[in-house]
Amino acid sequence: MAAFTGKVLSACLAASSLSPLGVAGLRLQEAGTSSKSPRRSGPSTSQWFERVSEIDRTDALLNFDQAKMTHSNLGGMGPEYGEDCITITQAGETDDKSITMKIRIADGFVYDGVVENNVLEGGLLSINVLNGHHTKLDVELLDHTGAPFVLPRFFISVLDIDAGSVIGAGKDASKASGLEDVSFNNVSAYYMMQDARIYAESLGAHDIHFVANQTGNQADNPTSAFHLNDEQLGKAAMVEFHNISNFSMGLHVYNQAGKSGRNFLLTGISPMISAPFGGCANQAYFHIGHANVTQNNLDGKTWGRSQRIVYENAGVIHGTTVDLWVDLVEGVYKPADSSRNGLYGHLGNINMGLNDSATFSFTFVLNGTNTPVALTDFFFSFYDIDQNDGGSESLTISSGVGTYFLSESTSLVATANDDGSVTFASSAYGNDSDNPKAAASADNDEAVTLYFQKPLSTFEITYTTMANGGRNFQFGSMAGIACP
After folding, report:
1. What tens digit of pLDDT does each residue of 112-127 get?
2. 146 contacts 209 by C-beta, under 8 angstroms
3. How far, CA to CA in Å, does 283 sit from each of 199, 289, 318, 483?
4. Which is higher by pLDDT, 315 or 33?
5. Is the preceding peptide bond at 142 cis, omega within 30 degrees of 0?
6. With 0-12 CB in 10 A as exposed, 13-18 as middle and 19+ as buried, what is 336?
7. pTM to 2 decimal places
């Protein structure tokens, strides 16, 4: 692969140095998990996680169905004595090991609340915070021995995020009172309803807070983690964490008359497992069909030039206009008809030979330059992973971190490999006549969408074909899988 000139820039730096490109921000929404599913096999060591679905609910962590509060002395305020924390046992189980949660007040913060309201009932943990107060919780996950327990993936749901009054209501229409604000750090993904009565705002790279936008009182509080009506779903959010044993959570109640404070309701996995993926709220992806192919030498037939396809103006990702370079990195690549490389309708296209196995890099470059730019929180789709009689196709993603999306009726078999990569193998028949020219006409059962959660300027895939004729695969745009 040819060396680049210049240094790799972050999207934010690139935008500030090239003002015509606009302001590029790092979007929060990220990524997924490889929970157990009939179509998956192999160890779950990958940094790519499948978007969790209802079928995975019993295997998902955390799960408060059997949880018990065994100690309550948050911030040393009681009602019990001893360690100044809340202890929740049986907060989930993995590999036959029970998970314990310990919740403490973070250094530099204090706690003021009605401690008698700090209870665990119906799989819901209630923590009370007095009006006008702000605190921060440090939450630690422990195994049965009391040692920190790093989980590959787990979820926390916050229910009943509401307010005493919102702006435009109440005695003073210019102010909100009793407004609940919940924040998290190191979030990998979040989920909330499209018509949610709460706001989700980024506090920085992968930190987020949820702010109430509807009034409520104790009468409309849920009594179960899994029996929520439409109004309760609209006041809930779920966050996802990867490969950690602890996280922080901020609880803030805007000032309001009265001394009872407000109760924050927490649980693990919840019906929000089926809510829209947070990255869809501000989705960014590559409009390959709008690009100009200015170099097309992936097959290496033009001597002295890189084996590369250049797609100029391939997309605008969070304000940064980028070109896409696709390079042959290594492997066997003998396309049956290289004239098909480039664009096929509104999608990128690469033609493969009968028995090829080649690694390609996809690099994002500042428009009109040779300078790679690091992007994050964007979608990238691959299509038409199918096969002919006696053959097969597979795509392996070997870099990046995030969530992948498959259709409910997918024909692809996803396997998490020992080296951290994930392979998507075909199982359905297809031919040239069903190759898509646009995402809207693509067969979602033969497609995979990747959501990249951490900044990167290049990712690599390996495409392998076993066929009795040339094969093609398409990419770009947005499959109707992640954000239907």
Report:
1. 999 999 999 999 999 9
2. no
3. 17, 17, 9, 8
4. 315
5. no
6. middle
7. 0.85
